[in-house]
Recover the amino acids of this structure.
């Protein structure tokens, strides 16, 4: 396919993010060319721009690992996807050769997983068109919109989180730390599953107010108000899901768990962040600490969850998503950093 396209690229060598005009790539034999409809800005993207998360350093790379669109062209060996299909893309894969891949854990692969992510190491969805291997492209059911499908990647990580945490019986006391998009999606998923004893802690007053749009009835507090609750020796929760990636909040969460409680570290902290915990405290209360690394083989689960939750939970206005054109990438990033919105989303191509 000939022609040119707009793309927002990160160049680690010059620490610059720029809107570029690039050739539209032709799909190799086993690849699919996606005309991008919606592409999200993830907290990981902000960490890349800040230099605190690894991405391609030897050449510019188009960011964007959360996106949906319509198939524009396919390679000669592609059989499961055709032109015109509505799709979402799983940005991660493995080498399919090493031990962890053969064990079904490609997210630990030294050459795959987060070391080969579309939008970090390979050109991603902050562009009008994006290439992806056929094996990473998922056809969408007619019941899901392209807007909703743009949330497939973060929801696939959430689905992996549910697997890692294990059973959370309805009636459990649960704390979500952080009301960015991931915290909001966790609130949606838990409410959809029947959980009602949930508290959300978020420092941004604007985000706390916006969270009421979800109409979950959950208690929404500031970290200061949460700290006051924690000073009551009789108060505690069964599960903490940290979506903040903020080391002091993660450290405090350990003290907020009841006996037998579980801390799930879901948000991505800077590589040099550290927490301090008492092994005796962990022993005495039998505290479990688990963590979540991307989304191995959970994309179909995410599509099923999207289909089940629908606009009751995933309407962009409800969960705090604001849409920007690709040309306004600087404004989108600035507004997201201010914390007034939960997520910025590019509408790259208007596709009905």
């Amino acid at each position: 396919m000939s022609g040119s396209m707009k793309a927002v690229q990160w160049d680690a060598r010059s620490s610059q993010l720029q809107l570029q005009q690039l050739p539209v790539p032709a799909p190799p034999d086993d690849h699919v060319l996606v005309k991008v409809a919606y592409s999200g800005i993830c907290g990981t993207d902000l960490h890349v721009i800040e230099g605190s998360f690894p991405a391609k350093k030897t050449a510019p790379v188009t960011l964007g690992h959360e996106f949906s669109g319509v198939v524009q062209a396919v390679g000669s060996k592609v059989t499961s996807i055709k032109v015109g299909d509505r799709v979402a893309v799983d940005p991660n894969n493995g080498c399919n050769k090493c031990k962890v891949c053969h064990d079904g854990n490609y997210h630990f692969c030294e050459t795959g997983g987060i070391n080969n992510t579309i939008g970090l190491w390979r050109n991603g969805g902050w562009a009008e068109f994006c290439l992806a291997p056929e094996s990473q492209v998922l056809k969408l059911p007619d019941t899901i919109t392209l807007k909703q499908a743009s949330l497939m990647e973060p929801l696939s990580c959430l689905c992996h989180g549910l697997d890692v945490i294990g059973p959370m019986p309805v009636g459990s006391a649960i704390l979500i730390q952080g009301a960015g998009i991931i915290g909001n999606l966790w609130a949606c998923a838990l409410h959809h599953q029947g959980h009602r004893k949930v508290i959300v802690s978020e420092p941004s007053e604007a985000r706390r107010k916006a969270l009421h749009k979800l109409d979950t009835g959950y208690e929404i507090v500031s970290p200061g108000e949460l700290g006051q609750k924690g000073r009551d020796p009789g108060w505690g929760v069964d599960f903490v899901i940290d979506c903040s990636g903020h080391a002091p909040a993660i450290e405090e969460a350990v003290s907020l768990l009841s006996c037998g409680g579980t801390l799930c570290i879901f948000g991505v902290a800077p590589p040099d962040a550290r927490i301090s915990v008492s092994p005796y405290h962990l022993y005495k209360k039998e505290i479990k600490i688990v963590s979540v690394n991307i989304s191995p083989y959970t994309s179909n689960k995410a599509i099923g969850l999207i289909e089940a939750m629908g606009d009751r939970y995933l309407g962009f206005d409800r969960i705090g998503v604001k849409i920007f054109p690709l040309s306004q990438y600087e404004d989108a990033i600035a507004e997201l950093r201010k914390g007034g919105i939960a997520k910025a989303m590019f509408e790259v191509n208007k596709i009905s």
Remarks:
- The mean pLDDT is 96.
- The longest strand covers residues 31-41.
- The first helix runs from residue 43 to 50.
- The chain is about 30% helix and 25% strand.
